[in-house]
Specification:
- The protein has 322 residues and is an alpha+beta fold.
- The protein folds into two domains: 183 residues, Jelly Rolls; 119 residues, Homeodomain-like (Arc Repressor Mutant, subunit A).
- It is built from twelve helices and 13 strands.
- A hairpin with a 2-residue loop joins β6 and β7.
Length: 322
Amino acid sequence: MRKTGNSKIEYRYYELPLNEWVLPKMGEGWIRSYGAGIEFLHFHNLIEIGYCREGRGILTLDEDYSEFEPGMVSVIPRNFPHTTNSEPGTESWWEYLFFDPARILQSVFPQDVQYQKKIVRLVQKNAIFEREDDIADIARTVKDIMEEFRNEGRYRQEIIKGYMVSLIFSIARKNSAEKVGSSDNTGRRKKDPDSPTKRTEPIEKAFSYVEEHFSEPIKISELADFCAMSEAHFRKLFVMHMHMKPVEYINSVRIRAACDMLANTNKSVDEVALSCGFTTPSTFNRNFRQFMEITPNQWRKDPDRFERKLLEYHVSAEKGWE
C-alpha cells in the first residue's frame, strides 16, 4: 500500500484569498483516489490541516508513515515533505485548511514581534497526526472552522479569525510538550531509522525567501547567502533535495502565484506577469505554457478544469525553464 522510492519532492504554492485568514479545500470535489499516479512527496508554503472524513490509506510524513482512517487529523508545517495515498482501488475524502499563522498573529499582537515569532516557531515545531478523540480541542476547532465556511453566515470572517487564534494556540500548546519531529499517537508509525527527518532543512530558508520575493529579481547567490553557504554548495544541495535547479523552483513559485492571480483578480495577463516577477509578457507566456501546457487566458477561463495539473506537476530539469 505504501509507495516507495519517493526521491522527488514537489513544491505546491497556495495563495490566501483576499481578506481571508484561511484557504479551505473542502467538499465532494476532494473525494478521490489520493496518490494515484503520483510517486513523490510534496510540501507547501502554508501550514496544512487535514481532516479525514472517509476512506483508508497511508499518510507519509517525510520518512515516517502511518495508516489513516475516518476521524483522523493532520497538522503539517510549511516546507514539510508529505503525501497521502488511498488504499489501492479506493477513494478517500479529506478536507483541508491552509493558513499562515504569522499573518494572523501579526493582526492580534501587532506590537510584539518576538512573541509572534515564538508562537510561530511552536506551531511549526512538529507535524501532528492523531485521532480526533486524542486531540479533541484541535479537532473540534478545525471542524467548527469548516462548518463556518460551509454555512457562510454573517460575521463569518470574524468568527473564523477567532477560531484560528484558538487553533494556533492549541497547536502551540501541544507542540510545547513534544520533542521536535512529529506527533503520532496512532501506534502504527513506522520509520526508516537511517533516514533524516527533514530532507529539505539545509535549504529551507531559501523557500521562505522566494515566497516573499518572487515578484522581484532573485539571484541564486542571494539564496545561497541566505542559507549561509557557498553558491556552488547551495546549487548542489538544491538539486540533490529538490531534483530541480534553483531557477526552475523560482519559476514554479511564480507560475503558481500567477495561477491564483489569474483566477482571483481582474489584472490583465501582462500585469500578472510583472506582478509575479517575469521581466516580459513573452517570457511569462512561454514559461506558463511549459508549466501548465495551456495559455494564461485558458487558465483564467476555467481554472477548476485545470486544477489537477497543479497537483500533478513536477518541474523537470529537461524542460528548459528561463
